[in-house]
């Protein structure tokens, strides 16, 4: 029996999916220009591999899976060239999830907005320095789980590690980051 042909509609991708994919990407890379580039690369890769679309998911889900791959490839590339890229973290924008263990140590009262912005940028810069000092695998796992918010299963599959190994790495990375931040930020 011949396989049923599944059709994609690339002419509608920008109208239907560009905003969603951009929002997905910008949260993970925290850089709107880079997010736009990743979305464009996703559309291009989708066009190139359209013949591989089997219709087992929606068009959007299929494009998101391509975009996830682009984000992972981006971080692999920058992690292989340590210190060549910045990863920005927004401590005060993500509530309970990211960086709580650091936020507890940040002063709660600020004199004015410009001092707060400068202090936040300096904190982010120091944290980037501390992340760059981590062993490469620790930094990669920490960024994927904490900054990019990848699911545990996805990280484990991508890096070929167990879930318990991932959590050991996260714990060790946080311990080393805490020590680095205490030595270079909080005690200055």
3D structure, described in words:
Pfam families: Sigma70_r2, Sigma70_r4_2. The chain has 188 residues and is mostly helical. It has two domains: 10-80, Rna Polymerase Sigma Factor, Chain: A; 100-186, Arc Repressor Mutant, subunit A. The protein has eight helices and no strands. It has helices spanning 13-29, 32-48, 59-80, 100-103, 113-133, 136-147, 152-159, 163-186.
What descriptors fit this protein?
0% strand, mainly alpha, Arc Repressor Mutant, subunit A, 8 helices, 188 residues, Rna Polymerase Sigma Factor, Chain: A
Question: Can you describe this structure in just a few lines?
Answer:
Helix content is 66%, strand content 0%. By secondary structure, it is mainly α. It has 2 domains: 71 residues, Orthogonal Bundle (Rna Polymerase Sigma Factor, Chain: A); 87 residues, Arc Repressor Mutant, subunit A (Orthogonal Bundle), CATH 1.10.10.10.
